[in-house]
From TrEMBL:
One of its GO terms (biological process) is branched-chain amino acid catabolic process. It catalyses: N(6)-[(R)-lipoyl]-L-lysyl-[protein] + 3-methyl-2-oxobutanoate + H(+) = N(6)-[(R)-S(8)-2-methylpropanoyldihydrolipoyl]-L-lysyl-[protein] + CO2. Its cofactor is thiamine diphosphate. This is 2-oxoisovalerate dehydrogenase subunit alpha. Keywords: Metal-binding, Mitochondrion, Oxidoreductase, Potassium, Thiamine pyrophosphate, Transit peptide. The branched-chain alpha-keto dehydrogenase complex catalyzes the overall conversion of alpha-keto acids to acyl-CoA and CO(2). It contains multiple copies of three enzymatic components: branched-chain alpha-keto acid decarboxylase (E1), lipoamide acyltransferase (E2) and lipoamide dehydrogenase (E3). The keyword 4Fe-4S does not apply. It comes from Xylaria multiplex. Its EC number is 1.2.4.4. SUPFAM superfamilies: Thiamin diphosphate-binding fold (THDP-binding).
Length: 586
C-alpha cells in the first residue's frame, strides 16, 4: 500500500510573508511581566522567587492562614442613616438643583416599581422586577460615568437606565412589548437595552454579562493602543452577590486582572440570591475579598449612601484608566426590600418585620432626603409635589404604552437575514395560519398594508382579505384615526385637530359598538395599521369633509347616528357626505 504524503500547510508560509511592520507595529496590550528565568532564586535570598509567588518570604513556622487572621474589609460611607456627613473631607460636587434631580430620579424608580408591581398583580403585565432599596447604588454610580462608557446590567438597574437618559416611555414600551419597543417586543419585561446610551441589553442568565464586560474592556484597550486619539473609556458591569457564585464571575475577574482591562465590577450585595441568604452562599468576607485574591484594587461601600457610591465610582473610573487600564471591584452593601420578582414571595423565607425594619431604618431615599432637608433646599411641600407629579407621569406613560399595538407578526422573523430564508418563510406562514384559526385567543398586532388606490367606501364594501378600514373622525392636514393610525392624506391644505374616539366592530355582521381608549400619534403617510376583518368608526359617525371649492379655512361635517351597523351601512352613511377624505381619494 502506498503512503500518501500530505503537503505542508501553507499557513506558516503566509504568516512569514506578512510585512514585518504589521506584526510588530503595535505594543503588547498586556503589561509586561518578568519571565521566570529573570527572577530565579539567588543564593542567600530570603524571598521566594518561584514564578507563581515572587514576593513570598520563607518561613520555618508551620502555620495555616485562617480567615479570622484578617479583619473584615471596612465599608466606606459619607453620610449616616440620618443624612449627617461623617466624612469631613467630603465636599458636595454638585449644585443643589443637580442633587434634586438625582433625588427625583430615585423617586421615579421607586414609584414606577410600585405601580408596575401592582400592574402585574392585576394581570396587566406579565412580569416585573423591583429595585427597592437599591436606587442610590444604580443612580449614584451611573451619574459619574461618562456617556461614552459601556455598561452591562443585570436586571435590577432601572436607575442606571434612567440616569443615562432612558425615558419613561422607553421603560413602558419595553414592559408592554409594543410596537414602539426598541427590542420590537421580542424580550420579556425588564430586559431593557439601548445602543444609543451604550447599555447592552439585559439578559436572563446569571453572570453572563460579567465576562462579556471584561472582553469589551479589553477591546476598548486595544482600540486605544491602535488609535491613541480615541477618548478613554471604561466598562461598568452590574451584578449581585448571587451572580458572584457563578463560575463566570471568577473567569471574568481573572481575565480582567491578567489582561489589565479597564473595567469596573459593581457588585450589589443585597443579602439574598432569590431565596438564598448570604450565609448559604459563602463563608468568606463577602465579595470584596475575592477581588483582592485576584489582584484587583477593591473597595466596599455603603450602597444606601448615594454620596459614598458616587465618590467610590468616580475614583474607580480614574484608577481603571491608569497605566493603560486595570480592573476595579466595588462591593456595594444594600438590602433587597422587595420580593425577588413578581414570581417570588420573599416572606416565605424571611420575616416581614425584617423587611419593614430596613424600610424604616435605612432607606436610600430617606437618607438623601434628610441630607437635602438639612441643607435647606428640600421640604415637605416639595416632596409632596414631586411624588404627585412623578406618579402622574408614570401613569400617563403606562396608559399610552398599554394602548399601543403589538409589533407586526413579521417582526419576529426580521433583523437576522437580509432576505427571509425558506425555513423562516414557512414558519411565518405556519404562525399566520395558526393565528387565523384562533383569532380570539391571540393578541392582535398591527398589520401594515399599502394605501388603497380606490374610493374608500367601495373598499369598505369589498375589503381585501384580512384587512380593515379605520375611518377618521375630524379634519386635519394629515388623516389619522384616534389610535394614531394614518388612514389617508388630505388633498387640500387646511388645518384642524383630529379629535375622536375609536369604536370597533366585525365586518361580518352588525354588532354593538365598543369604545377603546384614544391617543394621538403621527405615523408615516400611506400606511394602514389594523386588525383582520375589523372596521373602526364612530357611534355618531362624523366624517370630516370639505368641498374642493371651499376656501382654505372652511370645513364641514356630517353626523349620522348609528347605534349598530354593518360595513355597508357605514359606507353608505359616509358616502352621503359632501366630500370625504380617507384612505386614497387622492
Amino acid at each position: 500500500m502506498k503512503t500518501r504524503i500530505i503537503p505542508k500547510s501553507p499557513l506558516r508560509r503566509v504568516s512569514q510573508s506578512l510585512p514585518r511592520t504589521i506584526r510588530s507595529s503595535y505594543p503588547d496590550p498586556i503589561v509586561s511581566a518578568r519571565c521566570a528565568s529573570s527572577v530565579s532564586q539567588r543564593p542567600g535570598s530570603n524571598y521566594v522567587s518561584f514564578p507563581g509567588a515572587v514576593k513570598s518570604a520563607f518561613t520555618s513556622d508551620l502555620k495555616f492562614t485562617l480567615p479570622s487572621d484578617h479583619p473584615a474589609l471596612p465599608t466606606y460611607r459619607v453620610v449616616d442613616q440620618d443624612g449627617n456627613i461623617v466624612d469631613r473631607s467630603f465636599t458636595q460636587d454638585l449644585g443643589d438643583e443637580e442633587v434634586i434631580q438625582l433625588y427625583r430620579k430615585m423617586l421615579l424608580i421607586s414609584i414606577m416599581d410600585v405601580i408596575m408591581f401592582d400592574a402585574q398583580r392585576q394581570g396587566r403585565l406579565s412580569f416585573y422586577m423591583v429595585s427597592a432599596g437599591e436606587e442610590a447604588l444604580s443612580i449614584g454610580s451611573a451619574s459619574v460615568l461618562d456617556k461614552q462608557d459601556v455598561i452591562f446590567c443585570q436586571y435590577r438597574e432601572q436607575g442606571v437606565f434612567a440616569q443615562r437618559g432612558f425615558t419613561l416611555h422607553d421603560f413602558m414600551n419595553q414592559l408592554f412589548a409594543n410596537r414602539l419597543d426598541n427590542g420590537r417586543g421580542r424580550n420579556m419585561p425588564v430586559h431593557y437595552g439601548s445602543k444609543e446610551l451604550n447599555i447592552h441589553t439585559v439578559s436572563s442568565p446569571l453572570a453572563t454579562q460579567i465576562p462579556q464586560a471584561a472582553g469589551a474592556a479589553y477591546g476598548l484597550k486595544i482600540q486605544r493602543i491602535i488609535d491613541p486619539s480615541l477618548p478613554p473609556r471604561v466598562v461598568a458591569v452590574y451584578f449581585g452577590e448571587g451572580a458572584a457564585s457563578e463560575g463566570d464571575f471568577h473567569a471574568a475577574l481573572n481575565i480582567a486582572a491578567t489582561r489589565s482591562c479597564p473595567v469596573i465590577f459593581i457588585c450589589r450585595n443585597n443579602g439574598y440570591a432569590i431565596s438564598t441568604p448570604t450565609l448559604d452562599q459563602y463563608r468568606g468576607d463577602g465579595i470584596a475579598s475575592r477581588g483582592i485574591g485576584y489582584g484587583i484594587d477593591t473597595i466596599r461601600v455603603d450602597g444606601n449612601d448615594i454620596w459614598a457610591v458616587r465618590e467610590a465610582t468616580k475614583k474607580a473610573r480614574e484608577m481603571a484608566l491608569q497605566d493603560g487600564g486595570k480592573p476595579i471591584l466595588i462591593e456595594a452593601m444594600s438590602y433587597r426590600v422587595s420580593h425577588h420578582s413578581t414570581s417570588d414571595d420573599s416572606f416565605a423565607y424571611r420575616a416581614r418585620v425584617e423587611v419593614e425594619d430596613w424600610k424604616r431604618r435605612d432607606n436610600p431615599l430617606s437618607r438623601l432626603r434628610k441630607y437635602m432637608e438639612a441643607k435647606g433646599f428640600w421640604d415637605e411641600a416639595k416632596e409632596k409635589e414631586a411624588r404627585e407629579s412623578t406618579r402622574r407621569d408614570v401613569l400617563k406613560a403606562f396608559s399610552q404604552a398599554e394602548r399601543e399595538k403589538k409589533p407586526p407578526i413579521r417582526a419576529m422573523f426580521e433583523d437576522v437575514y437580509e432576505e427571509l430564508t425558506p425555513e423562516l418563510q414557512a414558519q411565518m406562514k405556519e404562525l399566520r395560519d395558526h393565528l387565523e384559526r384562533y383569532p380570539d385567543e391571540m393578541p392582535r398586532p398591527a398589520v401594515e398594508l399599502p394605501c388603497i388606490k380606490a374610493s374608500w367606501y367601495e373598499w369598505v364594501l369589498h375589503p381585501p382579505k384580512d384587512t380593515y378600514l379605520q375611518i377618521l373622525v375630524g379634519v386635519g392636514r394629515d388623516q389619522y384615526d384616534a389610535s394614531g393610525v394614518a388612514i389617508g392624506l388630505t388633498p387640500l391644505d387646511f388645518q384642524g385637530p383630529v379629535e375622536s374616539k375609536r369604536f370597533i366592530m366585525p365586518l361580518e355582521a352588525p354588532a354593538p359598538l365598543i369604545p377603546s381608549p384614544s391617543s394621538q400619534r403621527r405615523l408615516p403617510h400611506g400606511v394602514i395599521h389594523g386588525r383582520p376583518k375589523t372596521i373602526c368608526c364612530e357611534s355618531a359617525l362624523s366624517i370630516g369633509t370639505r368641498p374642493r371649492s371651499h376656501s382654505a379655512t372652511a370645513s364641514t361635517s356630517t353626523s349620522v347616528s348609528i347605534p349598530s351597523f354593518s360595513a355597508a351601512a357605514a359606507a353608505a352613511a359616509a358616502a352621503s357626505s359632501a366630500t370625504a377624505y380617507a384612505v386614497a381619494n387622492k
